[in-house]
Amino acid sequence: FQLRDAAATGELLRFMGYEKEETAGSVTRYRIDGGNAARTVDLEELPDAHHANQGAGSVHHIAFAVEDRAAQLKMRQALMDTGYQVTPVIDRDYFWVIYFRTPGGVLFEIATNEPGFDRDEDTAHLGEALKLPERYRPYRDQIEKNLLEIT
């Protein structure tokens, strides 16, 4: 992602276990071994970039995964000890999350891999039926009306 000053966010990534891999021009790559799709993060430093804000056409958050709630709580405490304002743990039915803003204003999410998307359906049939978190179940009819049929 693009930042006016990438140094503080780079420091945060190193705190989260990432290692600075390389810099090419204004882009610095950070990598963590054994990570999921977020194992590589590129920070582009653009001196004229605006502080990150949410709005139409922007990324809402960047998600990172930890194995379980114990790892998440440990990370939450470490972030708070470092001065970050971190949300309480939020139950999203399929995982638990915490959120905090980076020094550049980007919203980071740290989600658990547990309990997992197979908590309410067999792993062999994941994605065959629409499953909704509890808070969206009252809106099932409205949600289904807006979905395209998958063929």
Q: Report the structural category.
A: alpha/beta
Helix and strand sequence: EHEEEEHEEEH
Mean pLDDT: 89
Largest sheet: 4 strands, mixed
Q: What is the terminal separation in angstroms?
A: 35 Å
DSSP strand content:
25-35%
In angstroms, what is the radius of gyration?
A: 18 Å
Strand order of the largest sheet: 1-4-3-2
Structure, explained:
Strands 1-4-3-2 form a 4-stranded mixed β-sheet, covered by helices on one side. It has a 4-stranded mixed β-sheet with strand order 5-8-7-6, with helices on one face. It has helices at residues 7-15, 69-81, 140-145; strands at 2-3, 19-24, 27-31, 40-45, 62-66, 90-91, 95-101, 107-115. With 151 residues, the protein is of the alpha/beta class. The chain starts with a strand and ends in a 6-residue tail after the last helix. The protein has 3 helices and 8 strands, in the order βαββββαβββα. The model has no long low-confidence stretch (mean pLDDT 89). The radius of gyration is 18 Å and the shape is globular. The relative contact order is 0.15.
